[in-house]
Specification:
single chain; eight-stranded parallel β-barrel; TIM Barrel; about 15% strand; alpha/beta
Length: about 290
């Protein structure tokens, strides 16, 4: 089966993975380098860089880790750190020449947390915009409907283009992919409908859409009723429905591989059924994924 034509941002340099946290706890730069190389060899186009709260307390390790990764691979980095100050240090440390001149990514901003854009005049970068929340009368609110998500994406993208001169090709809209186990409000359906709205907006041509897919199968059993890898099949089911409308970037594990599912695939059909449900009917539809 042919793989999707998508950009993969390797997600593994992140303390959310126990094996990676152990590398951080031991300040194991050689191990971090090996993890970077493994992701690069598996097909990642970028590497996400997230060292957790240590980014706020240990600037020496932050800069050492960035330099060590760039000494091992030539991929550009996506900086996922918890403060503007940490982002500034990441951008100062990043060596674009080691990545073939490629811009780094700042991951992420929202309408309510726009501070990182103050760094753009000093050093251009690509940016991930979270479309999961909007600002309404000065207050941050969560987006749930497709119209809210797409509206936030449009406002942010046009603001970046018009106020900062940023090319749409340098803007990545992050569409939150919710865990289906607790999705009784149609959040997955709203996300997929938002993909269609954003992808069909002529003013946003060239924009990129992404999501972290690992959430979708949280707390579900590892195997589906047909014996397949349930969580990975769910990721591929989402992509099968989203990629044709412009969803082109994944924050994920490169060696898992992502490929479209055939129409008769058990998990794809069960996921499509789930998308039509709400409330307790949605929970019943989830059970069908792993009950024969």
């Amino acid at each position: 089966m042919t793989a999707f034509d998508i950009t993969i941002i390797g997600e593994r340099i992140n303390p959310g993975f126990k094996s990676t946290k152990a590398l951080f706890d031991n300040s194991d730069l050689a191990g971090i380098q090996a993890l970077a190389v493994k992701q690069a060899e598996a097909g990642a186009s970028y590497l996400n860089f997230n060292i957790g709260a240590r980014a706020l307390t240990d600037t020496a390790f932050l800069t050492e880790a960035i330099r060590a990764i760039q000494a091992a691979v030539t991929l550009p980095l996506s900086f996922d750190v918890p403060s503007v100050q940490a982002h500034a240090l990441c951008l100062q440390t990043y060596d674009a020449a080691r990545a073939g001149g490629a811009l780094p990514i700042v991951n992420s901003i929202t309408e309510h947390r726009w501070d990182a854009m103050s760094l753009y005049a000093q050093r251009p970068f690509k940016v991930v915009v979270m479309a999961s929340e909007r600002v309404e009368h000065g207050v941050a609110k969560n987006n749930k409907s497709a119209a809210e998500i797409a509206g936030t994406a449009r406002r942010a993208a046009l603001r970046l283009r018009e106020d900062y001169g940023m090319a749409l090709d340098d803007i990545i809209i992050d569409l939150s992919v919710s865990a289906i186990i607790a999705d009784t409000e149609g959040l997955n359906r709203g996300t997929l409908e938002a993909v269609k709205l954003i992808g069909g907006d002529p003013d946003l041509k060239g924009l990129h859409m992404m999501g972290g897919l690992s959430n979708i199968g949280q707390q579900l059993p590892p195997k589906a009723a047909d014996g397949s890898d349930l969580k990975h099949q769910l990721e591929n089911a989402f992509l099968t429905l989203a990629v044709p409308y412009g969803f082109d970037t994944v924050l994920g594990t490169p060696w898992r591989g992502y490929a479209p599912l055939p129409e008769d695939n058990y998990v794809l059909q069960a996921y499509q059924n789930f998308l039509q449900q709400t409330g307790t009917n949605a929970l019943r539809a989830v059970r069908k994924l792993y009950k024969a």
